[in-house]
Amino acid sequence: MRTSVLASIFLATAAVAAAPDAPRVNRSALMAIEKTFDSRIERAIIDNPFLLLGTTRGVYLPGYGAVFTAELNLVTLPAFTPFRPHFTKEELAKVRANKLERLARLKQLMQETMIGAAASLDTVPPNEQIAVGVSLFYNRSWEDTTGLPSQVVMVAPRKTLVDFQARRITSEALEAALRVQEL
Q1: 3-state DSSP call for residue 88?
Q2: Mean pLDDT, all residues of the chain
Q3: Among candidates 137, 131, 99, which has minimal Cα distance to 113?
Q4: pTM of the full predicted structure?
Q5: Three-state DSSP state, 129
Q6: Cα 155 from Cα 65, distance rounded (Å)
Q7: Domain ranges of the chain
């Protein structure tokens, strides 16, 4: 009997020791960044804001880093109605020009979010990444998407972002470390 109790204790101890480590980044830390990015998107342009489709989602990938994704429409458009069944060519050209112009503001928001995330996610190792990916919505049936990406993905090492925020590196060094892809 004593041997079986000792064996049970040994097996229970081994099971606890073999259990996977607790996540490096807890969910509440990711949620705070999600909400911050959503708020930045919604407040970025007052007169015709970005239209956030859903909410930002963050996940920590062990060995890689923290990844945040969102989907949005760069320009909020009026709805079609019986009195306005379609847009004119001039209106469509203006929508396209506005979307091209707003890409720069979106990238700025993404970079600001990454810098803030790197500072607040101090349990993410410095050699791991902070990434933000934004999928862009288009109405493919009538919208000219030539030259417009369907996704913007921005990635940088957490250490570089923290160093920039602490003013240990220049904005040029940050720009050199940022990987930006328009897909």
Answers
A1: coil
A2: 88
A3: 131
A4: 0.84
A5: strand
A6: 10
A7: 24-182
